[in-house]
Amino acid sequence: MIKVLLGLAFVSGSSWIQAAVLDPETLRAWDEYIAGADQKIKLRLNGQLPFLWTDESAERKRRVLAGETVIAPVIPNGSKIAAQGLIHDWMGAMFIPNTTLQQVLATLHAYDRYKEYFRPFVADSRVCSTGGSKQEFSMIFQYRVVFGNLFIESRYSSKDFVIDEHRRYTIASSVRVQEIDGYGTAQEQRLPPGRGRGFVWALHSISRYEERDGGVYVELEALALSRSIPGALRWFACPLVKRASISGVETALQKMRSAVEARPAVLQTKAVTLTPAVTSRCYCTAANQPGVTPSGSSK
After folding, report:
1. pTM
2. Which domains does the chain have, with CATH numbers?
3. Residue 1 above 50 pLDDT?
């Protein structure tokens, strides 16, 4: 499962970087959208659609097998207005040859190493808990925006689903997202969930894996909730948001491919340590956002 999601490096005028608040109406719209996205997996499980998005198009499959990372919007232009926010929804696919499903999953379950795999996009990462098919972990994302670097900590809950020996899928959702002011300084502080500049309010992903054709197909549907873009700035900001979203999904997939290819086969069954490095700045307390209902599959 790829837990590094959209790199939404929004760029606009100074009037758009003022504080924003996640309101209940926007959160409800996000929850409803995520519930619908999660339900669509049933169409792939009951045979109404191929299990892999890649297999829906012969040309798409050809490109993926040729080594391309294919990215496409799930909704027109990749985003839609939701009350006072924006929902972003993108699909990405790639093929990793000469590997196994076991090695891919072993790499992706090593959450404490995400700060190595996905550097510099992930500034820190930490395992919170694991048990059976469920995992919880936290990461600190670093976003480069026009006014400097923005740091956001997000705690996730994820669950793996086994279809058969060669196919799996994972659903992951943020249960707490907080902007960090003064990251790495003596003045460092985490803002309350749903507060801050609103570049990322919530994150969600649906990933699918299938081992065949001498390797593993990996697909990521990456979703995010952010503040809306003022109408006067959309002509300028929307194309930048689109390019940043595509780049974020593509970079996450490519870095994951590199991590899988670099992982020695002898480590495939190595247990993931639950003890974070002493330098870790991730927190794993208070999973739920105060005053905000967790969204998506975390309910």
Report:
1. 0.81
2. 18-298 (3.30.530.20)
3. no
